[in-house]
Amino acid sequence: MASSSTVTLEKTTTVVQSHNKDVESSPRTTMKTPLLVKGRKIGGDVGEDVVVDKRCCGHKHKKLELVSYDELPEFLRHNEFIVDYYRSEWPVKEALLSAFSIHNETINVWTHLIGFFVFLALTVCAATMVPMEYEAPHYHLGTSMGVAMANITGKNAVVLRTYSTDGAAVVVAMKALQRRPTNNVSIEAEVAAGVLSSPPAAHHRVTRWPFYAYMCGAMFCLLMSSLCHLLACHSEHASYVFLRLDYAGITGLIVTSFYPLVYYTFLCDPFYQSLYLGFITVSGAAAVAVSLLPVFERPELRWARAGLFACMAMSGLVPIVHKMVVFGDRPEAVITTAYEMAMGAFYFAGVVVYATRVPERWMPGRFDLAGHSHQLFHVLVVAGAYAHYLAGLVYLGWRDMEGCWCS
Ligand SMILES: [Zn+2]
């Protein structure tokens, strides 16, 4: 710092030129005022004055300011319609702590950090409330479900009720209601009775990993995104690393979204199961490889990035259409497809907002802190991921109840 800085020290009457508003408001300094060290260039060709307070004993504080788009180094220039409140090359500690202060990334950080904790809670609830992997005849399942349903309370009820009423129970419940159409018996009782009255079927083993792989993929995506928005401002190297982790997170979310859909839908058809899972996994690996190229983050390639991820997600239409062709008369197939269509709508809207940079392009500077496109994109991603989580519960219920008729 000292060797490369221009030190301006006047004992009596010094006018200090600085971008710092506090200093500008009181240009005269005396011995009692801080020493002002001016001039270390930050961020390539655009400089920023650094004000160092040496009130006592050489103790230093670097005052960090939010800067405008024009003051940013090249690697932080992503969206010229957001004109102010940027952090530029902040130390790691200050960048981390900035999660609790106001700047143009605060809401971007928190929309996905909250989403991460929501998915963490959903995963814990699913692990504790949804019956785990088992190998049992139907009547054992019925007994365990009856006991579980009798015990559901509070927040856990959301998970189990979704799992039970949308998934495992739906077929049996419909049969039970057709047989004895009464409103006096709760759906849970109908389900338990229906399952218990079903003849013991072949033993199943419905694997859980595709569902939890998706939950992990969603959490990884949301956490990497939050860290990227928090720390990419630190340096050009940090920006490169965290943007790659962010792209890897998006890819991971898309790839793992296929796993419950393909694995459970084609549980009885290993050929298509392997084909679709292999295709999306290889595509995801290729997308990560492409995203490692430095050119990938250039602002003018915004549409290419959006297009790559959109094409990967769109390829999910193939197994979904295939599912409806084969299982179109089954309520589980219809319900999961409805959730997947909702997810697709959220993601599509998110991609459009991301790529068009609406609304900030209409009023640059107006949405710097709140309401700009990336924040909307984040919210839509969380909504889409949640819709797919609901589909995942239905898949679990479907295959828990029915297994594979071929096995
Ligand atoms: Zn983001």
UniProtKB/TrEMBL annotation:
<feature type="transmembrane region" description="Helical">
    <location>
        <begin position="333"/>
        <end position="355"/>
    </location>
</feature>
<feature type="binding site">
    <location>
        <position position="374"/>
    </location>
    <ligand>
        <name>Zn(2+)</name>
    </ligand>
</feature>
<feature type="region of interest" description="Disordered">
    <location>
        <begin position="1"/>
        <end position="28"/>
    </location>
</feature>
<keyword id="KW-0862">Zinc</keyword>
<keyword id="KW-0472">Membrane</keyword>
<keyword id="KW-0479">Metal-binding</keyword>
<feature type="binding site">
    <location>
        <position position="378"/>
    </location>
    <ligand>
        <name>Zn(2+)</name>
    </ligand>
</feature>
<dbReference type="GO" id="GO:0038023">
    <property type="term" value="F:signaling receptor activity"/>
</dbReference>
<dbReference type="GO" id="GO:0009725">
    <property type="term" value="P:response to hormone"/>
</dbReference>
<keyword id="KW-0812">Transmembrane</keyword>
<dbReference type="GO" id="GO:0046872">
    <property type="term" value="F:metal ion binding"/>
</dbReference>
<feature type="compositionally biased region" description="Polar residues">
    <location>
        <begin position="1"/>
        <end position="18"/>
    </location>
</feature>
<keyword id="KW-1133">Transmembrane helix</keyword>
<feature type="transmembrane region" description="Helical">
    <location>
        <begin position="376"/>
        <end position="398"/>
    </location>
</feature>
<feature type="transmembrane region" description="Helical">
    <location>
        <begin position="109"/>
        <end position="130"/>
    </location>
</feature>
<feature type="transmembrane region" description="Helical">
    <location>
        <begin position="303"/>
        <end position="321"/>
    </location>
</feature>
<feature type="transmembrane region" description="Helical">
    <location>
        <begin position="211"/>
        <end position="233"/>
    </location>
</feature>
<feature type="transmembrane region" description="Helical">
    <location>
        <begin position="275"/>
        <end position="296"/>
    </location>
</feature>
<protein>
    <submittedName>
        <fullName>Uncharacterized protein</fullName>
    </submittedName>
</protein>
<dbReference type="GO" id="GO:0016020">
    <property type="term" value="C:membrane"/>
</dbReference>
<dbReference type="GO" id="GO:0009744">
    <property type="term" value="P:response to sucrose"/>
</dbReference>
<dbReference type="InterPro" id="IPR004254">
    <property type="entry name" value="AdipoR/HlyIII-related"/>
</dbReference>
<dbReference type="Pfam" id="PF03006">
    <property type="entry name" value="HlyIII"/>
</dbReference>
<feature type="transmembrane region" description="Helical">
    <location>
        <begin position="245"/>
        <end position="263"/>
    </location>
</feature>
<feature type="binding site">
    <location>
        <position position="229"/>
    </location>
    <ligand>
        <name>Zn(2+)</name>
    </ligand>
</feature>
